Protein 1
Amino acid sequence: MGHQIGESFRDKIVALSELVLDRFNLGSQVKISWERAGGLARHSFERVAEFFPDPLEELHATANAAGVAAERLMVLNARNMLADNTNGCTSIMVSAEASATGNGFAGQNWDNDPEMAPLSAVITRKGTGKVAFTSWTQPGVVAYMGFNAAGIGICMNALNGPSDSSGVPWYFFVRAILESNSASEAVHVVKSAPRALTANAAMITHNGPLNLELSPESVESVGSDAHGVLVHTNHCVHPALIPNNDEYSEQIYGQSFQRRDRGQNLLKKQVTEGKVSLEGAKSLLSDHEGFPTSICRHPNDHPITGWQRSVISIILEPSEKRMHVSNGNPCENNYETYYAG
């Protein structure tokens, strides 16, 4: 798989390997050198090899086939460990009981770097002895938002809290979740290895929404409300982690509290009036209350994050083996549907 990805997406991978640090530094007040980034990458190789050797082997093969240094691709996978970087997203989770389709789904807007859009792709991986999964991602990243053949879909949110450079980078946990056969296996694998940072996994499973707030010290589950729906943004919600909201307040991205309240109210309104449809979810993800740092985010004059926007919007229906992705802000662009065979 690594060789196929490296050969198929060589130009994108080369561009990513050259741009990743410059683009990261645009969103960070602390500027990182390639020397420092390379040191983190070399340490990450050791930790990943200990816990997740298969995706590491794939990463080496991708780098070899694309003709780039594997160290550069590890920086791509571990970039959110370099410094506090203000990226954000709004995620929604809807149970089968609350869904108009009768199938649970999850979705999110990816508020990030618009330069990443043309360097992205939808990739399906079918590893030997592994659960097949499909994700929207940048080639060279071991996993990103997507769904697997076992009925698990994962969205994600940057989350304020501590980090530990001795832990395993976040995207390798995403990969492990997407190669899990069940929700319980996904939770187990997240708890089984040292975590490098605080992050949020917003998942939909056969059992409904499953939201995990992860930190180096713990893994906490945030349940859906009585209506079977849940919204998560870029601050901690579980009582054990709420103190992070004060201690790491500078990491909280663009109206996170307001976006969560707005999204939760919109979902609750849809449920009480009937069910949450895919069109209703798309409308929510196109919402502009609090513009421009609204659920559907647009460029603004903020000196650190104003160049970012909702690069894509994605809705995952793992039980139907499909996902819907907008190329750009969902208020301006239609969703394309991707199916996994």
Protein 2
Amino acid sequence: MRVAEKVSALDLDEYQQAARQVLRHPLITASYPDRATLPLVRKWASQLRVDLAETLGYTLVTGGDTVRLRRVQDTLDATRPAYTRARKPFDRRRYAYLVLALSVLGRAGTQIALSELADAVAAEAGRVDGLGMDTERKADRDAFVDAVAWLETRGALRMADGSAVDWVNDPEHAEALYDIDREITGAVYAPSRVLQHLNSVTDLLGDAASAGPEQGINAERRRTGRRARRLALEQPVVYYADVDEGLRGQLRAPALAEDLERLTGLPLERRAEGVALINTGGRLTDVTFPGTGTVAQAALLLCARIAGYLASSRHRVELLPAATAAERLADASARIDAALPARSGVTALLADAGHAAATDSATATDSAGRPSAAAPPGDALPSGDAMPSGDVAAEATKAAGREATYPFLSDSWLRAELTKLVKEFGRGMSERQIADPASLLDDVLHLLASVGFVARTDGGVLILPLLARYRGVTAQLKETIK
């Protein structure tokens, strides 16, 4: 079956815009992400429902004023956190308060006072070892209101009176009153698994439909094809060395590129090392690269320095293997599972809460942040960018059956180069960020790892082929006219 089979050539661009909005925003409401998106997506909902199911194994659920995309997660992805009012990724405390707030709202009436919601969440949080919530502490009130603001942005809560900010600053004399939208809270709180039955965070992964009655070679090929499309769509880059032979074959198939390009309107670029969906104009991402701001600028300049260093025949660098996707998943799941409470404790907590929560995203932030099995859906897909010609990582092993190795650069070398960049271009960067070079380097490497340019390892990073795309970058500071 062809993607967008019943869409005319004249309407294809609008259909693809609707598809990108659904993929970028798993929850769409009358006000989120804006007032124009819900009517657009509802117009194409029937065709999208078919195409998303066939190509990706996703389920599109439409309600009166909501559209909810239930994704299939194949790995633990820390690149789509929820964000605070200050645009900082949620930490584990904020995720916990968000889930508990949703549980409380599920039992509330049509309206709720902020202090009432806070007291109920605090009572639930007090029963969770290591969590707690003290409304006398401003830090806890701030974290709680960040969770409330996340719900308010999506329309699950609507301010009827008062001010949440005033309550945070002076809870004794300020208050806020919210209307509750039950359809939206129900759409957010959409379990894909029964949490009482989970033994590991990896139980949240994979396509539940894949365990259905459809068997045989053709059925397995369809499932593998959907997984390959999901990888190419959801990851900024997919390296062949990172996946098994079955997925490599699907990633190389012409049908995969045709399906994704027709669904999203974005071209799929192929190189010897892998594939990447080219996210032109940032139409399917919340992380664009290159981007604005000190971290993004420093990251781009560091890419150029790395590329130049590796391209020089004067420098010999150590080549090391990178962990495969399967190895990264095993490591992450082991760390998360080690922090899970006892099974009896989970069952009792969920039974008392009266609601089991899980979303289509299997990770949170630090929780991812970084990891939590009950993280809410993120706002966007990671950025996708084109594959390089491979000059920087020319020595990386590409032959099937051989372990791929990549250039290793130490943290000390990276710190030294970033220090040089700050000295040369610091006038165009944030003074606060360049005053803490260690933190700036960590932010830069986190950004580069999230878009598939480097793989962080003990003592440094491995340079992946995608970084070579920016080997010719030059920079010049603008002169200020006085």
Protein 3
Amino acid sequence: MNRARPSFQKREREKAKREKQAQKAVRRAESKVRKSSGTGMDDSDLAAIVPGPQPKPWDDEA
């Protein structure tokens, strides 16, 4: 009876490992779709920022 138990435990470990890998593959695919579908500017505070030099806030007084 002791010989059957390690192989059963091994099958259970391998099954859990396959399930975890499948879940990770789904998460990776969702992440890839999310990254490719958007521009990355979901934050409204960052949407107004343009690349390049930004105006200095203290130059507005002059």
